[in-house]
Amino acid sequence: MTRDEIYSSLRSKLRDVVPEIELRYKAELAYEIIRLKKEKNALILGHHYMEPALYHSIVDITGDSLELSRAAAQADNKIIVFCGVRFMAETAKILNPGRTVLLPSDEAGCSLADEINAEDVRRLKAEYPGAPVVAYINTSAAVKAEADICCTSGNAVSVIQSLDAENVIFLPDEYMARNVAKETGRQIIVPVRSQRRAGSGGGPKYRIISWHGRCEVHEKFSTTDVENVRKQFPDALILAHPECRPEVVAASDFSGGTSAMVRYIRESAAQRYLLLTECAMGENVAAAFPEKGMLRLCSVRCPHMNKITLETTLESLRSMKYVIEIPEDIRANAARALERMLVAAATDKLT
């Protein structure tokens, strides 16, 4: 594509989201990135939370963590550039040990992934011997290496339901664990550092043992947000990410991972929506479905996702940074947990 073609494409999608003078500048960056990725045989993966100008110009494959994990596993490019955060780039490296995986910003971490480490998992495994460990994909490679299987927000319920176990350790998101426990009819137990806080006493025999991790973005949404939107926009459908508080999920019309939200909007006849998730996704969905009204709560941004920009992606390809490296023993163990997730997602059961 020429510079003018890239600009025209961006303008057609983002003219109501991004000022025109910025689109011109972004188109120049996108043109150079596209040139370099062809020259270097690079594949660019982009999460739904990426800035709109990046998301709608340079990315070869967009999606949620599960879709991008699948894409990473099937890649045959020499270089994979992951426009997401560190745990996502690590996932790509785990599944593609022989390829170079680049993360455009060394500061693109994840508050949720930082809530737990491998030693925490080992202590839980010792306390609940025999309980399978389900690691949410928002975890480090070292934590995944301690797990039996991974999951995403889109398949957490089906993964847990596939396990024939009374106790399941689900890490590290407390709110998602509570939402999954409610959907699967399990009692929830959340160990909190030096003491344990139990869920509803006398509940079902089957239990989910979780952790005290929370996403710094999704925990900001409240039922007051939902109530205020319903008062002003009673026709709006409210979609909540499963990392939101359980009471927020219960007050919403739909809960699901990012790709499930996109499918819901695509298939729904409603004309107005609010997404309770990272704000950039609302902008990207608005560009994809211009005929549908997208409300904004754009005070909620992920500071880590926002480190990934067209500027940092261009510099990453130019200078081949930042390269993801994982010790082989950790990578091999983490790969088994991820591959079990991919098999489960493909067959709807464990093999």
Layout of helices and strands:
Blueprint: H1 3-14, H2 20-40, E1 42-47, H3 52-55, E2 61-63, H4 65-74, E3 79-83, H5 86-95, E4 100-102, H6 118-127, E5 133-136, H7 141-144, E6 149-151, H8 156-161, E7 167-171, H9 174-184, E8 187-192, E9 195-198, E10 207-209, H10 223-232, E11 237-240, H11 246-251, E12 254-255, H12 258-267, E13 272-276, H13 279-288, E14 293-295, H14 310-319, H15 328-347
Parallel strand pairs: 1-2, 1-3, 3-4, 5-6, 5-7, 7-10, 8-10, 11-12, 11-13, 13-14
Antiparallel strand pairs: 8-9
The termini sit apart by: 44 Å
By CATH, the topology of the largest domain is Rossmann fold
CATH architecture tag of the largest domain: 3-Layer(aba) Sandwich
What are the segments in which pLDDT stays under 50 over at least 5 consecutive residues?
Answer: 194-203
CATH-defined superfamily of the largest domain: NadA-like
What is the total tally of β strands?
A: 14
**What spatial order of strands do you see in the largest sheet?**
6-5-7-10-8-9
Q: Describe the global form.
A: globular
Task: Spell the H/E element sequence.
Answer: HHEHEHEHEHEHEHEHEEEHEHEHEHEHH
- Fraction of residues in H or I helices: 40-55%
Largest sheet geometry: 6 strands, mixed
Descriptive report:
The chain has 351 residues and is of the alpha/beta class. It folds into 3 domains: 3-108 and 305-319, Rossmann fold, CATH 3.40.50; 113-214 and 328-347, Rossmann fold, CATH 3.40.50; 218-295, Rossmann fold, CATH 3.40.50. Helix content is 44%, strand content 16%. It is built from 15 helices and 14 strands. The protein has helices at 3-14, 20-40, 52-55, 65-74, 86-95, 118-127, 141-144, 156-161, 174-184, 223-232, 246-251, 258-267, 279-288, 310-319, 328-347, and strands spanning 42-47, 61-63, 79-83, 100-102, 133-136, 149-151, 167-171, 187-192, 195-198, 207-209, 237-240, 254-255, 272-276, 293-295. The strands form 3 sheets. The chain has a 6-stranded mixed β-sheet, sandwiched between helices. It has a 4-stranded parallel β-sheet with strand order 2-1-3-4, with helices on both faces. Strands 12-11-13-14 form a 4-stranded parallel β-sheet, covered by helices on one side. It is globular, with a radius of gyration of 20 Å.
